[in-house]
Amino acid sequence: MSKQFKRTLITSALPYANGPVHIGHLAGVYVPADIYARYLRLKGEEVLLIGGSDEHGIPITIKARNEGVTPQDIVDRYHTLIKKSFEEFGITFDIYSRTTSDIHKETASNFFRTLYDKDEFSEQESEQYYDEEAGQFLADRYITGTCPHCGNEKAYGDQCEQCGTSLSPSDLINPKSTLSGSKPVMRKTKHWYLPLDRHEAWLRQWILEDHKEWKTNVYGQCKSWLDLGLQPRAVSRDLDWGVPVPVEGADGKVLYVWFDAPIGYISNTKELLPDNWEKWWKDEETKLVHFIGKDNIVFHCIVFPAMLKAEGSFILPENVPANEFLNLENDKISTSRNWAVWLHEYLEEFPGKQDILRYVLTANAPETKDNDFTWKDFQARNNNELVAVLGNFVNRALVLTQKYFDNKVPASGELTEYDRETIAEAGKVKAVVEYNLESYHFREAQKEAMNLARLGNKYLADSEPWKIAKTDMERTATILNIALQITANLAIVFEPFLPFSSAKIKTFINTENLGWNDLGKFNLLPEGHTLGESALLFEKIEDEVIEKQIQKLLDTKKANEASEHKANPIKEVIQFDIFEKLDIRVGRVLECEKVPKTDKLLRFLLDDGLKKRTILSGIAAHYPNPQELIGKQVCFIANLEPRKMRGLLSEGMILSAENADGSLSLVAPTKEVLPGSQVV
To answer: How many CA atoms lie within 13 A of 352 on its CB side?
Structure first.
């Protein structure tokens, strides 16, 4: 029998405050965390959803340095943007704070000091790269060099982003500091380490034996770490941005961000509930659940529990339902490459459509493996499911009631066998959705909620009240009463998933007091109850809207390719007198047409200043409307030996420049010159 708890504390991974939130973050962490919190609140349970921005660490200092501002400027900007985006999207944090707050610095310092005083750390001296010009130790990301695996000359000290290999700074060939450009030297430095090897035995029992119910991807990753053997992990680093290490002799050292950040869950709870935060963190009757992405599994399942256990007074997480990654249009989401759908941009470009994105991200949730978001699927799910199933059913039930019963709930008469079957089937939804939500299968839970709308559509289609109304109004009343009760049930079951739409349905049926315990009941709307004013719940998304988003991504990809483009190597050196033999001139295009029965060739007739000359060029694919070139000036090689092609004599070569994407552009002077002018 599973353990019963009095309350649930939900944490969601702290987004890094060096950029906006994107759909990968939402699908992996924040939408499922919000669904779970809304569900528990709807049941009347005591629950907290804790969030906040992670504002320390190297990427923030790098971004600040690149922009010529302070790290505080960076985190202030993105914390504000992230918090506002979450609020507009309907993520119901009880608090959304930050790790630069005074209460967090105090909490993190005290936590470290408690472990330090209990002798839970080991001190180790090691050699690390030091920039003598900048006068500081270098974090991994402040060191670049040549990757020993693929030869990429811009690999970082922790990873080569070209081949994806994890690295150590000492692995790099020809390392250099990104601060000064100089070659760093090795210098000794002292740090404090959390000896995870001391905790391995109880972690193995706690995870592998006591929590076999954890998701297979989480359990499997934890087992891999434990089977490899845990090693001490540094909890401090040499940096001037972060929470200072609170012991003597630690000048210039801060708490490592992985140690500092999860303590943010505690400090944010203290900020929210200064007088009774401890019951949420130190009472065994509190259920602690961490929502995270797969890249955070080791920190939340092994490292943070070891920290809590070492401190001695905190509860440990009951579950860590981590998700895998969401890709975008079959490519990995990347902040640095701007390959993402950003939440704040979505909210601007799709006003009032928060629930569509919530629905699609839940339907494609990467719960057990990486999944993919595409704009075509976004459109299809909206048009074929939200509009055609859920919206269609609610609209039909309300419009028919308005038409036949003056917008009042009609009385239910004698039930047919089909009525009873439909009611019984609808009554099963609560248990199935509950099971899936409580086992963190949000995708399946939402699917079951949508099946209730499918059931409603089938019931109306089979019962045909618009036909029966011609001869049997009492039977019509019963059909529509059942349809309206299903509508009320839909308002309940979709509230965790589609909160904005659920609120609209409640307005349509003119009722507010519907809790989770009402789900499955068919007396939610009494006879004679006046319904509210209805409207379309969802609207179709047209092709041009989606094409605009796809084009936006294509433009991003093109810009990335351009920024990463490397020109072809320079050809072998030639003598100047060889170059001098080339006679490059400017001609004016008098005629230009495609050569018949060829795909590639264009025939140019040029005024070369002395005569008219014909030149054939294989650029037809790049100029589908060759007549547009008539009157233009182009550069050509005038003294190339004539060559017969397709029965035509070509007297020279027209010069073109090839772009990174393979497209060609004719080379021409920037201002008008006389035909025959030489390029010198």
So the answer is: 7
Query: Is 1 a residue whose pLDDT tops 70?
Result: no
Q: What is the 3-state secondary structure (H, E, C) of 12-71?
A: ECCCECCCCCEHHHHHHHHHHHHHHHHHHHHCCCEEEEEEEEECCCHHHHHHHHHHCCCH
Task: Confirm whether residue 163 is marked as ligand binding.
Answer: yes
Average pLDDT over residues 356-385: 97
160 known member of a binding site: yes
First-last CA distance in the chain: 88
With a cut of 90, say whether residue 167 has pLDDT above it: no
In contact, 592 and 605? CB cutoff 8 Å:
yes
- CATH fourth-level superfamily of 576-678: Nucleic acid-binding proteins (2.40.50.140)
335 marked as binding residue: yes
Q: What CA–CA distance (Å, rounded) separates 93 from 30?
A: 10
CATH architecture type of domain 388-530: Orthogonal Bundle (1.10)
Amino acid 40 reads: L
Contact predicate 166/159, CB 8 Å: yes
**Residue of higher predicted confidence among 170 and 526:** 526
- Measured distance CA(320)–CA(207) in Å, rounded: 11
Comparing 512 with 560, which gets the higher pLDDT? 512
Among residues 187, 159, 186, 157, the alpha carbon closest in space to that of 169 is found at 157
CA distance 339 to 345: 13
Cβ atoms of 524 and 481 closer than 8 Å: no
* Fold type of domain 7-122+192-323: Rossmann fold (3.40.50)
Q: Is 147 annotated as a binding residue?
A: yes
Q: Are 589 and 630 in contact (CB under 8 A)?
A: yes
3-state secondary structure 436-481: HHHCCCHHHHHHHHHHHHHHHHHHHHHHCHHHHCCCCHHHHHHHHH
Taking the model in full, what pTM does it have?
Answer: 0.86
Domain ranges of the chain: 7-122+192-323, 388-530, 576-678
CATH topology of 388-530 equal to that of 576-678?
no
Which pLDDT band holds residue 562 (cuts at 50, 70, 90)?
A: confident
The C-alpha angle with vertex 641 and arms to 638 and 647, in degrees rounded to 5, equals 105
Q: Kindly state the helix (H) or strand (E) to which residue 413 belongs, with its residue range.
A: none
592 is in an annotated binding site: no
510 by Cβ neighbours in 10 Å (0-12 / 13-18 / 19+) ranks as middle
